[in-house]
Write a structure and sequence with these properties.
With 666 residues, the chain is of the alpha/beta class. Strands 11-12-15-18-21-24-27-30-33-35-36 form an eleven-stranded parallel sheet. The longest helix is centred in the first third of the chain and has 21 residues, at 2-22. GO terms for molecular function: lyase activity; pectinesterase activity.
Length: 666
């Protein structure tokens, strides 16, 4: 038996080598897909069809990587006839079988040779027979030992099969050959089982759906290894065609909608925009080296292999040892494999229209009566992602639009654009409705302004309010990382937790006024910073370690900057040297009124950030504060202790006065 298999393998190698050597104008897939329909009625096409019939095994499948358009010698034809009944090397890998079925369909459309029809139907039966009971397909059938038995998404193998089943089950005109009603029903059943398998194999990170791996174990459905350099991992490339297939389904189930939205969120999270691939070619145009070059605002790409828990890209040589960068593996694998892909861009391009059509009970984003949209991770609402709900909000609405968010951990970046005014983001509970993301300065890596891209939630639309939820930057103490960025006017934030480390809360916008009430805000360095006029009332301001609470950049001539009233400043037990603030810009204004200052506040209170001119231009003041940290006689000489008549002007109405009266009380 071993000798027989070696003989078969040698024959396949000889055939493949000989035919590939003869091919001089088009690859085999190009012959199928790029020729005009009329070509399939030519004598040349008929000669190719005879080859394709010879290559098809009696079981119905074809081998892969064969240039079937090349002329066969008499001996090669004899060898192929001998191979027909062996069923070895029949596969769906690299497009095999599915592409030959397409070729036969195109031939039959021009030449009604019943052999072409029979060949197509045998191929279809082969695909049906090869399916596992769980809905997946192996790479080879009959089963070939090793990783080939895994459910195979690699190189779009299973997606290609499911696209065949979809066309057959929907009885479209894509194929010229029409199977019997019985076979159509089998194809429909196979398609449904395949989609169910896709849904069950979508990988979860800490309970959150992400994407798919190139291979999944045929029994456990867990991620599985393939070749030594193809370790179990999330795949930016293979997941693309899976999502596009799911998006092509009319009237998708709630589970399909959730799968697509979750995968899109993962694509957004894992896209790389600071690298570009540079290829070095020789005189024949062959790649002799690949390098990844740092770039700013490069077009998005995705890694082929990403860690199952961290999403970090990794690379392997034939030794199977994970490396962090492409230049750490040998040239043979570095240059002979596709390690990055921009394929997910197609998903992201099609997604907004798909989301409006399929992701919500609201049929159109510009419906005039949209006033309430519900977000729930269990699928019971209009959307499972907050950002999708924002997409469905009308632009510049006459009425307020409430996005009600059910309890859950929403791992996503959320942006309320400038045109989405009058948005109310309302959580079910402050403790259990959590929006979190983990961007930081180094991760973004877009140059000196990277901080401003690190937000978890960005508010640009005026007349915004948010309540009863937690907004968190989960990157840890690893440099700048914004949790909430508000660059809108008339923004109210109430009963919220705003969590992070350095630069937790960014407040800006030309002449912007913002109101925080009953909130908990924590961080390390400059964790409340920016140029807006902001009023904080009944808030707890918590320092995680010794550093600075505020870093205002109030514009010159602006009457108020940051004002804290009836707030409580607390800290971790290890923190005992925290400044109330320092000036990001020299006209910074920050005032604390009736606040309880913990013992962690330094006696001098304020620091000039090595800007002597700030001592003449800033306005740092306190009034009627209390606690161990309130030491007015020890404050820096250039700060102020307000008198009662001076403090009386620091009212909510005076500070937040706007052309829309009492907006902050809504």
């Amino acid at each position: 038996m071993i000798q027989f298999r070696k003989t078969i393998a040698f024959l396949l190698f000889a055939l493949s080598f000989g035919l590939n050597a003869q091919s001089n104008y088009k690859s085999w897939p190009d012959v199928i897909r790029k020729n005009d329909a009329s070509w399939f009625g030519t004598d040349e096409a008929k000669k190719v069809a005879e080859n394709v019939l010879l290559y098809q095994r009696n079981i119905g499948g074809w081998p892969k990587n064969i240039a079937m358009q090349d002329e066969l010698t008499p001996q090669q034809k004899k060898d192929l006839i001998a191979l027909k009944k062996t069923a070895v090397e029949t596969t769906t890998d690299n497009g095999a079988t599915c592409q030959e079925m397409l070729f036969m369909s195109k031939m039959y459309a021009q030449v009604k040779d019943e052999r072409y029809k029979e060949s197509f139907l045998k191929g279809l039966n082969y695909l049906l027979e090869a399916q596992y009971n769980n809905g997946g397909w192996p790479q080879f059938y009959p089963l070939k030992k090793g990783y080939y038995t895994h459910i195979t998404y690699n190189d779009d193998s299973m997606v290609n099969i499911l696209n065949v089943m979809k066309q057959i089950s929907e009885e479209t005109d894509f194929y010229s050959i029409k199977p019997s009603k019985e076979v159509v029903q089998k194809a429909k059943k196979a398609f449904d089982k395949g989609i169910d398998c896709i849904l069950k194999t979508q990988y979860k990170q800490k309970g959150v759906l992400t994407a798919w791996c190139a291979q999944h174990d045929e029994f456990t459905l867990a991620p599985a290894n393939a070749r030594a350099f193809e370790l179990a991992s999330l795949s930016g490339y293979e997941s693309t065609k899976i999502v596009l297939l799911l998006m092509s389904i009319e009237k998708p189930s709630r589970e399909i909608v959730t799968a697509v939205k979750s995968a899109v969120a993962w694509f957004e999270k894992t896209k790389i925009t600071n690298l570009e691939e540079k290829r070095v070619l020789n005189e024949e145009g062959k790649i002799i080296d690949k390098k990844m070059i740092p770039a700013i605002n490069a077009g998005p790409i995705w890694a082929r292999f990403m860690d199952l828990e961290t999403n970090e890209p990794f690379f392997c040589d034939r030794d199977g040892i994970r490396k962090k960068s492409l230049d750490q593996i040998g040239s043979e694998r570095r240059n002979g494999y596709s390690w990055y892909s921009d394929a997910p861009k197609e998903v992201l391009k099609k997604y907004p229209a798909w989301a409006i059509k399929n992701g919500t009970k609201v049929s159109s984003a510009d419906k005039k009566n949209v006033t309430l949209i519900t977000v729930a991770q269990d699928g019971s609402g209009d959307f499972t992602k907050i950002q999708d709900a924002v997409y469905a909000c009308p632009a510049f609405p006459y009425e307020r639009v409430t996005i009600a968010v059910k309890n859950g951990i929403y791992n996503e970046k959320v942006r309320i654009p400038e045109w989405n005014t009058n948005v109310v983001l309302q959580g079910e509970s402050k403790e259990k409705t959590i929006i979190t993301f983990d961007d930081n300065f180094s991760k973004i890596n877009l140059g000196r302004n990277s901080t401003f891209y690190t937000y978890t939630v960005l508010v640009e639309g005026d007349d915004f309010s948010v309540s009863n939820l937690t907004i968190k930057n989960a990157s840890g103490d690893n440099g700048q990382g914004i949790a909430l960025s508000v660059v809108a006017n008339r923004a109210k934030i109430s009963n919220c937790n705003i969590l992070g480390n350095q630069d937790t809360l960014y407040l800006s916008g030309k002449e912007a006024k913002q109101y925080f009430v009953n909130c908990y805000i924590e961080g390390t360095t400059d964790f409340i910073f920016g140029s807006a006029t902001a009023f904080f009332e009944n808030c707890e301001i918590h320092s995680i370690k010794n550093s600075y609470v505020t870093a205002a950049s109030t514009p010159e001539g602006t009457p108020f900057g940051f004002v804290f009233k009836n707030c409580k400043l607390t800290a971790e037990g290890s923190a005992d040297a925290v400044y109330l603030g320092r000036p990001w810009r020299i006209y910074a204004k920050t005032v604390f009124l009736n606040c309880e200052l913990g013992r962690h506040i330094k006696s001098e209170g304020w620091e000039n950030w090595s800007k002597p001119e700030a001592e003449k231009n800033t306005f740092y003041a306190e009034y009627n504060c209390s606690g161990e940290g309130f030491q007015p006689t020890k404050r820096v000489s250039w700060s102020h202790q307000l008198k009662k008549n001076e403090a009386e002007k620091y009212t909510l109405e005076t500070i937040l006065k706007d052309d829309i009266p009492t907006w902050y009380s809504k």
